[in-house]
Amino acid sequence: MNKEQREEIFKRFAKNNPAPTTELQYKNEFELLIAVILSAQATDVSVNKATPLLFKAANTPKKMAALGEEGLKEYIKSIGLYHTKAKNIIKTCQILVEQHHSHVPRTREALEALPGVGRKTANVILNTAFGEPTIAVDTHIFRVANRIGLAKGKTPLEVEKQLLKVVPKQYLHDAHHWLILHGRYTCIARRPKCSACIIQDLCEYPDKVFD
Predict the structure, then answer these.
(1) Is 158 found in the same domain as 100?
(2) Would you say residue 211 has pLDDT above 90?
(3) Do 63 and 117 reside in the same domain of the chain?
(4) What rounded mean pLDDT belongs to the chain?
(5) Residue 204 covered by a domain
(6) Residues 141 and 114 in one domain
(7) What does residue 177 show for φ and ψ, rounded to 5 degrees?
(8) 3-state DSSP helix/strand/coil percent for the chain, to nearest 5?
(9) How many domains does the chain have?
(10) DSSP 8-state symbol, 81
(11) Same domain as 36, residue 108
(12) Total Cβ atoms within 10 A of residue 50
């Protein structure tokens, strides 16, 4: 895939969706952090069903830490891996209170030091909360980037590094969201919806599916 093709792909994404963002529901940086931790190996839909009541009860690190693990589990037990997530979130909230004045840190190093926060989660926070041009490679982005020929790689980190090199700079901030949404609704894992795809003529996938 050449530079002109990549440019056209993101030009079309931008025209189709000028202001993309996460589908997770949140009102501040802390709520976003908790929602992203909860979304690991779970759907945004399941997280959005659980968080309104949780955030109503505890929308700051101090309030959430005060719930304790068992109290938190009552709000998030409909989400996968909730036992582990509850433990990580309570520890994270304690660290935010004790080390960061109850604010979500703005550096990758500080974010990745929080329990339950890996590189992907840190990238989401840096991009969505703080406007940094990062790309969090989840299963959707990994699949789409490899499938269409945009960025080839055997690991999420390889794909992330490739994307940061090849995505045109003016589109880098929003690329994360466009690629996730494209993978979630069009370039799906089984039987991608090539007939409805706005970039299918630019895509290098050899097994396109046209219904």
Answers:
(1) no
(2) no
(3) yes
(4) 95
(5) no
(6) no
(7) -70, -40
(8) 60, 0, 40
(9) 2
(10) T
(11) yes
(12) 18
* pTM summary value: 0.90
Domain that holds residue 13: 3-20+135-196
CA end-to-end span of the chain: 25
User: How confident is the model over 47-53, as a mean pLDDT?
Assistant: 96
Spatial distance between the Cα atoms of 157 and 151, rounded to a whole number of angstroms = 11
Read off the pLDDT of residues 81-92 as tens digits, 9 standing for 90 and up.
999 999 999 999
The per-residue pLDDT for 210 is 86
- Both tokens of 128, joined, read 């969505």
Q: How many helices (H) and strands (E) does the chain have?
A: 10, 0
How does residue 30 score in pLDDT terms, banded at 50, 70 and 90? very high
CA dist list (Å): 31 to 20, 104, 128, 178, 210 = 19, 10, 12, 22, 40
| Alpha helices, DSSP H, located in 17-167 | 29-39, 44-57, 61-76, 82-100, 108-112, 119-124, 139-148, 156-166
Q: CA-CA distance, 172 to 28, in Å (whole number)? A: 23
Other C-beta atoms within 10 Å of 2: how many?
A: 8
CA 175/CA 151 separation, integer angstroms: 13
Q: In which band, very low, low, confident or very high, does the pLDDT at 59 lie, cut at 50, 70 and 90?
A: very high
Gap between the Cα atoms of 167 and 82, Å rounded: 35
Active site residues: 120, 138
pLDDT of residue 199: 97
C-alpha closest to that of 46 among 55, 58, 35: 35
